[in-house]
């Protein structure tokens, strides 16, 4: 009876000592002071002649969320000494795994030594040490250390990169690793030495220190290196400072401040630079981006950017756009309501355009409400719309270069659909619209002007459908739409709709315009024929041919420069699309005039395979002075990417001017992502063309060691191959 009690007491104490001892040495000191219950299982538990409790053969110990396995555990109560024989594996949750050959611990479990140990942090960083010593509750010291996030396998014992150090101190509370006499190696070759080195352990997501440096080469600036430094100011706020130095006598300093709130966040930053491109003057830019979710489903978005000069953003690789847009927008979208108010500022970077003569500032407000009338005798639905906008130019010139404009519009539309005998689908609609326009600094137009229009529409569709034995569906649908309009003819400037489009999405739209100044209010008939083949397991296709006949020409367009929509008869619209289940999509849109000459042309091809992605677009636009083109334009855009099985990826693309037969831009890049390292190499070149006399080249290189404060590495043990 006494022996049984002693064995039960000894087994519990040995189990608790073994589990907590390793836990204290490795990762969780708080549990060493706990009073939880431990569980031990083993093939054999006995007390030997020296009154030592011995558990041997597949020993497993559980203490809370901690699990330890060992081959033998011996507890000497007389010496207060605990001996554990390996292989020892201790799991402390998903973030810590400790492996060792043997361990010797004191009875109070506050001191001890583990031999031939390996610590794996967050399934990424592994630290192999000859010995591990626990000094106090939070500090673990390891001697003769090799640390890496790369897999180390029997057939490949040398990792791609590693840090060798005489000693490593792991501060578990601060989540930091301190290396003494550290040597950084690549493929076993020493490349750098650090007397002292501090790195965050993989469990720390936000740590103060340097981020991955980036190397670039830019035309006019030369080769440069940027070294960002990250400063966490609070759990939801941080600051990044990025100095940059270039060989072409240029230096830059970029700042980025981020803050997160319960209902959104913001990012504020910019850059200041000095270079020889614009001597004796500081250059730079500032920006602000924000997104906040407000009460009653409102959302506030802000995207502001302000450069010091027109060429700065392109020269420093911030953006290659020739026109930048800043805006502050407040909106709310619900099932039956849409609200939006915004202020937009446009700024062109084209040196040949005077920004003062452009409509730089736009203020706009829009409200739309849908009201269901299914329960009323009228049926259908009612849509109410209100809009207001104003544009302003800084130039004080009488005429188009200085014209300011303010516009208010109201619209109401009723629509109802019904299924008639023989499957005929009929839709009827009534619409009323009023625009009140005030014009300043342009004596060619009266002020104010009110424009009114009343319209009625009947739309008839007769779909013919059939299904084959294989399950493929075919649809042929003739469509006829007639719209009668009554309006007062007034002369208004066209500021926002200088390039009308005709496509399958708006051929049968009652309101076909992207702006407010040139609405489609005339009486007209829209006719078309749609064909579709739908196959859920194979290729599907659809095609549409149609045209618009108008009683009068489209308001707001110069009759000397024909438009696809601007005449009494529109161009013929031919459109088609082909798509399949394996990521293939082909699109075509073509507009032909009465002479069968193309007035618009666009072809696109997209393919997203398992490893290869391709996207290409060809666009053709004939000369049209009203749209700002004095000659024909044909452009070809291409982007291709491929992911190889060995972790290497490649990409290339270009923008080609088919009319002038010259490339505008070309870009390529190579990337590699392995188990513990990521490399990205990019090269882009902008050619000197007839419209752009400046040639520029940009080169970028970024190398990131995974698993030490950057992106996550491949979890340990998943990449070894037998």
What does this structure look like?
By secondary structure, the chain is mainly beta. It has a domain at 2-206. Helix content is 4%, strand content 57%. It has two helices and 41 strands. The chain has a 26-stranded antiparallel β-barrel. Strands 1, 2, 3, 4, 5, 6, 7, 8, 9, 10, 11 and 12 form a twelve-stranded antiparallel β-sheet that branches. The longest helix is centred in the first third of the chain and has 25 residues, at 2-26. It starts with a helix and ends in a 17-residue tail after the last strand. Mean pLDDT is 84; it is low at 1-35.
What's the N-to-C terminus distance?
Answer: 53 Å
- Molecular shape: elongated
Poorly predicted spans? 1-35
Helix content: under 10%
Number of strands: 41
Number of continuous helical runs? 2
Mean pLDDT: 84
| Radius of gyration, whole Å | 36 Å
Main sheet record: 26 strands, antiparallel, barrel
Backbone structural class: mainly beta
- Report the sheet-strand fraction: over 45%
């Amino acid at each position: 009876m006494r022996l049984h009690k002693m064995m039960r007491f000894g087994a519990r104490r040995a189990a608790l000592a073994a589990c907590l001892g390793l836990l204290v040495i490795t990762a969780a000191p708080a549990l060493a002071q706990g009073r939880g219950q431990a569980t031990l299982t083993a093939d054999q538990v006995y007390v030997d002649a020296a009154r030592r409790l011995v558990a041997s053969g597949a020993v497993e110990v559980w203490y809370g969320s901690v699990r330890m396995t060992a081959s033998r555990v011996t507890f000497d109560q007389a010496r207060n000494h605990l001996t554990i024989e390996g292989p020892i594996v201790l799991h402390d949750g998903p973030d810590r795994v400790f492996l060792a050959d043997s361990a010797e611990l004191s009875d109070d479990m506050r001191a001890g030594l583990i031999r031939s140990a390996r610590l794996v942090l967050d399934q990424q960083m592994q630290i192999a040490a000859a010995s591990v010593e626990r000094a106090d509750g939070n500090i673990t010291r390891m001697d003769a250390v090799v640390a890496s996030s790369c897999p180390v396998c029997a057939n490949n014992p040398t990792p791609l990169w590693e840090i060798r150090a005489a000693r490593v101190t792991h501060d578990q509370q601060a989540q930091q690793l301190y290396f003494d006499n550290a040597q950084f190696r690549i493929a076993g070759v020493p490349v750098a030495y650090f007397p002292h080195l501090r790195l965050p352990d993989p469990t720390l997501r936000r740590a103060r220190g340097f981020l991955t440096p980036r190397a670039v080469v830019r035309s006019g600036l030369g080769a440069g290196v940027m070294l960002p430094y990250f400063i966490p100011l609070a759990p939801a706020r941080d600051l990044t400072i990025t100095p940059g130095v270039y060989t072409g006598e240029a230096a830059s300093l970029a700042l980025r401040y981020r803050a997160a709130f319960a209902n959104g966040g913001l990012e504020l930053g910019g850059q200041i630079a000095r270079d020889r491109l614009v001597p004796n003057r500081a250059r730079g830019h500032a920006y602000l981006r924000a997104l906040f979710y407000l009460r009653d489903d409102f959302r506030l978005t802000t995207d502001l950017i302000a450069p010091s000069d027109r060429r700065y953003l392109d020269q420093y690789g911030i953006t290659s756009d020739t026109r930048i847009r800043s805006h502050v927008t407040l909106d709310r979208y619900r099932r039956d309501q849409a609200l939006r108010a915004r202020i937009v500022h446009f700024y062109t970077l084209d040196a040949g355009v005077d920004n003062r003569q452009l409509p730089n500032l736009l203020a706009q407000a829009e409200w739309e409400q849908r009201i269901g009338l299914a329960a009323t005798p009228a049926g259908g639905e009612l849509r109410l719309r209100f809009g207001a906008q104003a544009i302003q130019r800084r130039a004080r010139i009488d005429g188009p270069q200085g014209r300011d404009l303010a516009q208010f519009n109201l619209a109401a539309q009723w629509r109802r659909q019904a299924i008639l005998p023989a499957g005929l689908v009929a839709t009827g609609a009534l619409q009323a619209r009023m625009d009140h326009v005030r014009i300043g600094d342009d004596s060619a137009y009266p002020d104010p002007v009110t424009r009114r229009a009343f319209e009625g529409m009947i739309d008839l569709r007769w779909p013919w459908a059939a299904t084959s034995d294989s399950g493929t569906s075919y649809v042929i649908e003739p469509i006829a739409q007639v719209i009668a309009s009554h309006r007062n003819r007034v002369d208004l400037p066209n500021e926002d709709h200088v390039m009308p489009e005709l496509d399958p999405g708006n051929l049968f739209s009652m309101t076909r315009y992207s702006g407010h100044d040139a609405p489609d209010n005339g009486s007209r008939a829209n006719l078309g024929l749609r064909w579709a083949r739908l196959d859920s397991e194979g290729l599907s296709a659809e095609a549409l041919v149609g045209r618009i006949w108008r009683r009068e020409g489209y308001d707001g367009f110069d009759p000397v420069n024909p438009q696809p929509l601007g005449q009494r008869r529109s161009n013929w619209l031919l459109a088609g699309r082909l798509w399949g289940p394996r990521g293939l999509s082909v699109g075509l849109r073509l507009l032909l005039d009465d002479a069968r000459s193309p007035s618009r042309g666009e072809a696109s091809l997209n393919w997203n395979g398992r490893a290869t992605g391709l996207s290409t677009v060809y666009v053709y636009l004939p000369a049209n002075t009203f749209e700002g083109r004095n000659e024909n334009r044909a452009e070809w855009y291409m982007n291709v990417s491929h992911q190889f099985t060995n972790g290497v990826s490649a990409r290339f693309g270009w923008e080609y001017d088919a009319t002038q037969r010259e490339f505008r831009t070309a870009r390529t890049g190579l990337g590699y992502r392995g188990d513990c390292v990521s490399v990205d190499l990019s090269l882009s070149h902008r050619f000197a063309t007839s419209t752009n006399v400046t040639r520029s080249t940009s080169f970028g290189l970024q190398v990131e060691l995974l698993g030490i404060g950057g992106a996550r590495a491949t979890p340990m043990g998943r990449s070894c191959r037998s």
